[in-house]
Design a protein that fits this description.
Layout lengths: L3 H11 L4 H8 L3 H9 L8 H15 L3 H15 L14 H32 L14 E3 L5 E5 L4 E6 L2 E11 L1 E6 L2 E5 L4 E4 L9 E8 L8 E7 L16 E2 H7 L4 E7 L5 E7 L3 E7 L5 E5 L4 E6 L2 E6 L5 E7 L2 E5 L8 E9 L5 E7 L2
Parallel strand pairs: 1-3, 10-19
Antiparallel strand pairs: 2-9, 3-4, 4-5, 5-6, 7-8, 8-9, 11-20, 12-15, 12-17, 13-14, 13-16, 16-19, 17-18, 19-20
Helix pairs in contact: 1-3, 4-5
Length: 365
């Protein structure tokens, strides 16, 4: 049986992608990337994490997630311990023996049919890429500063929410090279190329597209791409007004809790929070002083929140939540609290006296 871990590692090394790059672009922690490649499943908090991270990592490398998950299932079954009393002799009624034999024949027949159909289906599709069914129709993808990897097809639309409004690019062709139709004309991305694209000709680069797979003659195969809004571009990052950000002096006057600096620099920019849960937790958030949103999460759940300059979060069980903050290509993890602890935190930009900015985490009393 093939090893999903060796496939992941060999594919990453073949594409000359470092683990640091994988961590940055998938937001999966290094320890979990290394654990998947070495098939060290004991390090994961639960089965949901294993399947979720394996699916995301496989999609990132351009592998078929369903096949990789089959290999994972095979490994788990293979390593499952045999029940201690399985082979102990027990006197069995004759009718029970007959029922077991008949049931076994039916099960074996079903499994044989399943294996036969899947084997020939795999053989027929070996070396081919999944094509979209006509009934699925045109898809629309809304891009953000978090990269997404998808197979896109002719007619699909890439939507780009910018400060000036919503821009879009339409997939015009997926043969030989990816052709995107924009407001300023058709732009082409060659196989293996990472292209920065200006959609409206006004403020420089708007999106970044990397083309990892495309057919030379079959448009039905589409194109495998990794795409995102360009981090740091003038059109995709809203420069925040000073009046919307509290100064360090004002902050010190009203807050006495612990402050931890995540990012700092000459400007403030939008940021993303990824929250992953490993237990039951009531979680509430308020973004940029807008309406509060509250929901109940449990083991394996994940939540992504985007904010411009500030967000307040409430957690009923802080130890069950892992927070990761992403902004301008940088990533920072926030330490979890104690088991059963009710924790309130502000994550916000603060303006220093010298005009620089810092993104801080503040424990709210």
């Amino acid at each position: 049986m093939e090893s999903f871990g060796s496939i992941l590692k060999e594919t990453r090394e073949t594409k000359e992608i470092t683990i640091e790059t994988v961590v940055r672009e998938t937001t999966i922690s290094r320890q979990y990337i290394e654990a998947l490649e070495s098939e060290n499943l004991e390090i994961f908090p639960g089965q949901t994490y294993i399947t979720g991270f394996l699916r995301n990592y496989s999609e990132y490398l351009g592998l078929e997630p369903s096949y990789m998950l089959k290999l994972l299932t095979g490994k788990v079954i293979q390593e499952s311990p045999v029940p201690e009393n399985l082979f102990k002799y027990t006197k069995i009624n004759t009718w029970i023996v007959v029922l077991i034999i008949v049931g076994s024949i039916l099960v074996i027949g079903g499994i044989s049919t399943f294996v036969y159909l899947n084997w020939f289906n795999q053989s027929d599709n070996q070396g081919k890429t999944t094509v979209r069914l006509e009934t699925e129709g045109i898809q629309r993808y809304t891009l953000s500063m978090n990269p997404i990897q998808k197979r896109i097809y002719e007619g699909d639309v890439l939507e780009v929410p910018l400060v000036s409004g919503m821009l879009s690019a339409t997939v015009q062709d997926t043969v030989g090279a990816l052709a995107l139709s924009t407001d300023i004309g058709i732009q082409y991305v060659e196989l293996g190329e990472e292209l920065e694209i200006d959609l409206d000709g006004k403020n420089g680069t708007d999106i970044v597209v990397f083309l990892s797979d495309i057919s030379k003659n079959d448009k039905k195969r589409g194109a495998e791409v990794r795409m995102m809004i360009k981090a740091g571009s003038a059109s995709s990052i809203e420069e925040l007004k000073e009046g919307e950000i509290i100064s360090q002096e004002e902050l010190s006057a009203i807050v006495t809790g612990k402050q931890t600096v995540l990012f700092s620099g000459s400007r403030a920019y939008p940021f993303t929070i990824n929250a992953s849960f490993r237990g039951a937790c009531l979680f509430r958030n308020q973004i940029d002083r807008k309406e509060e949103v509250e929901d109940f999460f449990t083991n394996g759940d994940m939540l992504t929140i985007n904010a411009n300059n500030a967000i307040r979060i409430w957690m009923s069980n802080a130890n069950t939540v892992k927070l990761q903050v992403i902004g301008d290509g940088k990533t920072a993890d926030i330490e979890v609290g104690r088991a059963g602890q009710v924790l309130v935190q502000d994550i916000r930009w603060v303006r220093e006296a010298d005009g620089t900015f810092k993104l801080v985490v503040i424990d709210v009393e």
